[in-house]
Amino acid sequence: MASITLDKVVKLYGKVTGVDQISLKVADGEFVSFLGPSGCGKTSTMRMIAGLEDISRGSIFIDDKRVNDLPPAGRNVAMAFENYGLYPQMSLFRNIAYPLYVRKVSPTEVGREVVRIARLLHIEDLLDKKPSDVSGGVRQRVSLARALVRKPTVFLLDEPLSHLDADLRSSMRGELKRLHDLNGATTIYVTHDQLEAMTMSDQIAVMNLGKLQQVGTPSEIFNRPANRFVASFIGEPAMNLLRGRVASTPEGVLITLQNTPFVTLNRETGQAVLETARQEDGVIEVGVRPPDFTVASPEKSGLQAKVRFREFLGETVLLTLDTGAERVRVVAPRDTQARETDLVSLVPRLDRLHFFSIESGMAVAHSD
Amino acid sequence: MQSKFNLPKITRWVLLAVWGLFAIFPVYWMIITAFKKQRDIFQGPFLFPFLDFTPATQSWERVFGQDRDDILKGLGNSLLFSSVSALIAVVLGAFAAYGLARYTYKYGPYRNNDLSFLIVSQRIMPPIVAVIALFTMFRTVGLIDSPFGMILAYTWFNLPLTVFILTDFMKRIPLDIEHAAAIDGYKKFAQIWKVVLPLAMPGLAAAYLLSFFFSWNDFILALMLTFQKSSTLPIVITNMSAQMEPRWWLISAVGILAIIPPMLAVIVLDRFMERQVLHGGTR
Amino acid sequence: MSSVKLEALTKKYGDNLAISNLNLECQQGEFIVLLGRPGAGKSTTLKLIANIEELSSGNIYFNDQLINNIPTENRNVAMAFESYALYPHWTVRKNLEFPLKAPGRNIPAAEQEARIRRVAELLEIAHLLDRKPSQLSGGQRQRVSLGRALVRPASVTLLDEPIAHLDARLRHSLRGELKQYQREQNATTFYTTPDYVEATAIADKIAVLIDGQVRQFATPEVVYDEPADIEVATIVGDPKMNILPLAPGATRLEINEAWLQLPPLPPEAGYIGIRPVNIQIFENAHPYAIRGTVYVTEPMGYEQVIRVEAGEQLLNIKTLLTTGTFSIGQTVWLQPDWTTIHVFDRSGQRLKGGFH
Amino acid sequence: MKHLLIAPPLLFFFAISVIPLLFTLGLSVTNTSIGGSGSFIGLNNYAQLFSDQFFLRGFLNTILYVVLGVTAQYWLGLGLALLVNSMVHGKRLIRLLILLPMMIPPLIVGFVWQTLLDSRYGPVAGLFTGLHLKPVPWLTDPTLGFVSIVIVDTWQWTPFMFLLLFTGLRTLPKEPFEAARVDGASSWRIFWDHTFPMLLPASIAAILLRSIESFKLFDIVFFITGGGPGGATNTLTLLGYFTSLRSGNLGYGAAMSIILLLTVVVLATLILIVVRRLMARADKAGQQALDQFLAEPLPVKVA
Question: Which among A164, A228, D255, D261 is most buried, taking Cβ atoms within 10 Å?
């Protein structure tokens, strides 16, 4: 097993910058997710680590050894592809065995290893089939099995669950996490699904537009998002981002939304918010996650809003509300009385507010 | 590093250049021969690049003078037969291919696959097997040496090919797109005309091109089924050279003319074949 | 804008029954969601209504008129395909225009333009009108396909997983807008999805499809609170409802040498179901609790899902992250809340009666 | 409606394929000659064929042309397709240049190569003299004549193979090749383990098509050697033509064509069977290995 270091890695496609100066360290045995929307450069980064794409600038080290000029075979990485990348003319058995055949492992050993992995992934009865004869779920597991059958320095998994249906995806998520827990292999996992990243990773590297946005544990990413992008990309439904006016009062720093007082911050948090707002016309962006609002009757002080939709989600309801200028989403207990067109007052949880600079989008403070 | 076949770059270029020389040289030779006099042709051999002769326009004077009418007739006939028969073959082939791709046929024991095989199997039959009978049949109904007869013969010759190529293309057009047109309120004919045919464009272009090539290059059918009036370019050229000492300079000049139409066809149709029309329609 | 009645629909592919004896009736303007796993027959049902697939048997009525023999192009149904099925050789605008220009519709040019504009704004594709489908991302293509179905008035609108491939933000905002729009148009809508959250959020009524049959047809609240059988119960809810088999006549549940006293149950009870939020988890030995081993944990924001091996069972538990941190292999104790259980008979049917 | 769609090709099939075929079959059991009627002579024509040195030579030649020509064209076409496919720039132009020979009518091809290979005035002879080598009688020596025909056929039709194989290569998915590189396979192994097998369907189609067309080889030979010297480069189609229409021996010529047709059908079927066998055998070997491993009980810790 090994550690991986990216040092100011850049990928250019002609004049377009696909990956922009990414620096990152993955410790031995860590499970790290590259998370971001499609086209954010996460897959390109992984492919550069695998050696499938040239590195335009910067360096990649595996265990302190610079690997820029090594072909994929020389890096001893194992990879599972988003579209499986199975060998269509070979049986599933031969597909899984292929990396071992190439390394001239003895046939007995190959058979033993393949069957072991196949049993682990519950595909041992299908090994004589061709990839075209089995379902997408099985193909996905074969692609994983082919990566897992060797003992590489690092596992690279490119959206390995994206084509599975919901049930299988959720159970495979658990299986993968257990597998990593058992073998402790350094793993890089590419995904656009924040839930996958949140549930499985030791560390998440959030990317957007080719740039690294934040690296941290799932809890850091969720509770202290570094900027507006990370804040709205993590968590479902997405965090509400509201425009507030900032004013200094004797009690502290007062934030006003829609001309009504919203919250008064303590000195420490307030100071940072105040300083940013001073340079930006006295305005700040307030982030509130949908579960962090409480729905109260309209006479209570809070953000006044009119219910636009009420959607039943089982344990909870999702309310979409109009505040006049903005649209707000709130997740509330299902016994919440508010119906469509009702007026309500939204009261935020004071210890779970996030503040972002309007101009740069960077987080200014978190009130926790 | 990106290549699937990892030869060093220089080796690749050298290999390509060797083949390129082999492939292009005869064409080059034809072009320079077209500017030689009979005497120069029999002066050789010289050293590469074989340009040590005085260029002459003897051949072109013949092409645009004495032999003009014959050549024009041959060129016109070839162009007419090839382009029209290719068009008919593509249209009929497209409809048949659509049928084979979308419907289930059952004629006694014959299903879709048997029918396609029957149609395509005609291609296996060497023309020589049919040509004697064809000659007799055509003579009986008076189609020998007639444009209609030649177009008919070439259409027959090419139809299996177009059906073969287009069936595959029709199958690749997602059924849902056709269904969408029905949902949107259009009847079958409009569905085919507005949606299916535009989406089969690369196939139609490829099928047309190949049909055109095969008719254009045909020799044996024209040899058997024409005499005078409907002679195609290859027959005209043969007649010109049916002498003890072939006039290579003249034949080369006509040869250059003969390459132009298929080249133009390729250049025009190549872009249609490259077009990824189906891209983006479905998930 | 019709009421729809599906009567004993059956669709066979060879020997394979895709839809068997499916019945469903809905009023004009209702928003019906067909919820089911992949392969349950959701798409097939829509295609039967559109007559893209031929009925093997059964009857379809629009406004009480039998329409079995009316061809697709005359049924006046609009449909968004799961595969999108855009016309790749045309721009987005032409794609949206095509249904409006169909023979016999005679929609004035100004109204066509207005409709296209309205739908393009609703779906946030107004800036893409002059692009071709190949220049769009997957999510944008899906919105164009949805737009083509919404742009014209239709007797029935059929939407086959129309927002499955959009990003989370759009999925949430579109859900509500879509329903609102269809309500304004007074359009009868059939909508398929495998995602129960989408179904409960948007539906007037949910039809749960399993093996080509409607297992339950009711409002979202009823489907969630009173699932008709075990299969319905496990489709609606994430993570899945835990289903525990009972020995005949059992009065207690034995797992890992511990047992739990069951509440009084009718004699025909065969299974009990407990939702993951209704099981409490403890790090230390706890009275009235069964022992288990953590199989895997999944933190997600404020909450976490913990899967616990207990005896033969793998139980799902959903709780707040603040409940504690658990690691794979750790021993934990579980205590179900008996007041919230669902009871099913041996064949998996829900038992009526007040067990909670 | 659906019957109307496939009516034309079926009509053509019966009118211009089946009827002439029966007609030719009928002719082949008579001694009909041009301008005269013949009488039924049973299988005499066929019997005679097998003692006809010209026919036997032509038969052998045809098969050799197909085998040698198609083999050469396949490997060259495959090589070119791989080379061009691995290029990043200039694909389109190179492709057009490679396709050029295919666009020239065989008749012209014949003339051009005749001049090229002429032992007195041709540039090839010129090159040989320039290198102080003895000029080679390309067209007048029986063996060399045969070789020349194969070279010209390869020159003209390698582009066709290239086109089919290049298109085939372009439709192959990208991921398996990347997977193989990550799995640690060398270029050579990737070619034999993946490219070649995945291209097999396209290869089979290309080889079959070219074989079928090669059996009809006529015009190139007609114009370059006319079948000579002494029938050394004859093909069955050429013989059939000379016998039926030049010598006017329709019945005998018809019998020749029928034999040709049978040969094509038998060979095409053989190619298909052999290929299917090969593919099935590869599967079977894998299957046996698998059975052996599955039979072995293994201590596996399943979660």
Answer: D255
- pLDDT, averaged per 10 consecutive residues of chain C (356 residues), comes to 94 92 95 95 96 95 95 95 94 97 93 96 96 92 97 95 90 92 94 96 97 96 96 93 90 83 88 95 90 94 94 93 93 92 94 60
For the beta carbon of residue B170, count every other beta carbon within 10 angstroms. Answer: 22
How far is residue C222's CA from residue C202's CA, in Å, rounded to a whole number? 14
Enter the pTM of the model.
0.86
Using one digit for the tens of pLDDT, what is the confidence trace for B187-208? 998 999 999 999 998 889 989 9
Q: Which residues pair with C157 in a beta bridge?
A: C78, C189
Phi, then psi, of D258 in degrees rounded to 5? -65, -45
In CATH terms, the superfamily for domain D62-229 is: MetI-like (1.10.3720.10)
Catalogue all structural domains in chain C, each as residue range(s) with its CATH number.
Answer: 4-235 (3.40.50.300), 242-345 (2.40.50.140)
Distance from CA of A53 to the nearest CA of B (A): 7
Cβ-contact A210, A36 below 8 angstroms? no
Q: How does pLDDT run across D55-99, given as a tens digit for each residue? A: 888 889 888 999 999 999 999 999 999 988 887 777 778 888 888
The token pair that represents D269 in the structure block: 């079927």
Kindly give the parts of chain A with pLDDT less than 50: none
Q: How far apart are CA B236 and CA D54, in angstroms?
A: 30
CB B152 within 8 A of CB B143: yes
A85 closest CA partner among A127, A32, A142:
A142
Q: Which of A98, A103, A151, A178 to mutate to test the interface with D (most CBs of D within 10 A)?
A: A98
CA separation for the pair B132, C346 (Å, rounded): 80
Residue B230 three-state SS: coil
This model of the complex carries an ipTM of 0.84
For residues B125 and B121, give the distance between their C-alpha atoms in angstroms, rounded to a whole number.
Answer: 7
CB C77 to CB B183 under 8 A?
Answer: yes
CA angle, B28 then B31 then B33, to 5°: 105
Q: How many helices (H) and strands (E) does chain B have?
A: 14, 0
Give the residue on D whose Cα is nearest the Cα of B271. D92
- Top residue of D6, D96, D249 to mutate, by most chain B CBs within 10 Å, is D6
A349 close to C (CB below 8 A): no
Specify the higher pLDDT residue, C89 or B113. Answer: C89
Residue where the block lists tokens 């030869």: B7
Look at residue B7 and tell me whether its pLDDT is greater than 70. Answer: no
How is chain D split into domains, by residue range? 62-229
SS3 (DSSP) at B27: helix
Could you give the CA distance from residue D289 to residue A214 in angstroms, rounded to a whole number? 49
Apex D34 CA angle, D33 and D36, nearest 5: 70
Find all residues with CB under 8 Å of A235, minimum gap 6, and list them: A194, A222, A289, C301
CA–CA separation, A19 and A22 (whole Å): 7
Which residues of chain B lie closer than 8 angstroms to C103, CB-CB?
Answer: 185-187, 190
Of B95, B125, B155, the CB nearest to D5: B95
Numbered ranges of CATH 1.10.3720.10 in chain B: 67-278
| In this structure, CATH architecture of domain B67-278 | Orthogonal Bundle (1.10)
Encoded tokens for D50: 């097998």
HSE-CB for A219 with a 13 A CA cutoff: 9
**How many other C-beta atoms lie within 10 A of the C-beta of residue C100?**
21
**Three-class DSSP category at C61:** strand
Of the candidates A132, A135, A187, A140, the residue with the CA atom closest to the CA atom of residue A162: A140
What's the pLDDT at D282? 57
B278/C contact by beta carbon, under 8 A: yes
B122 in D contact zone (CB under 8 Å): yes
Mean pLDDT in residue range D40-60: 85
Q: How many CA atoms within 13 Å lie on the side-chain side of B127?
A: 24
